[in-house]
Amino acid sequence: MEAADLTGFDLSEAIWKKSSLSGGSGGNCVEVAGNLPGAVAVRDSKNPAGPVLVLASSGWHIFLDAVKSGHFN
What one-character-per-residue DSSP string does 14-70 give? Predict the structure, then answer.
């Protein structure tokens, strides 16, 4: 996997989505913006003005595959 420099990535066009499984109880929820070219951004839904983790799209897909396969159970 090739590393990408995502420092200072422009998030002005980010469309944030929260999982429908997160519920409305104010628990541990994240929002994901997957509409960015070559990147996926993740943030805490309770703190939308806070820090954002930006990953290369390929890294995000590797992470999702690992979650789906039960790697983190």
Answer: ---EE-GGG-SS--S-EEEEEEETTEEEEEETT-TTS-EEEEEHHHHHHHHHHHHTT
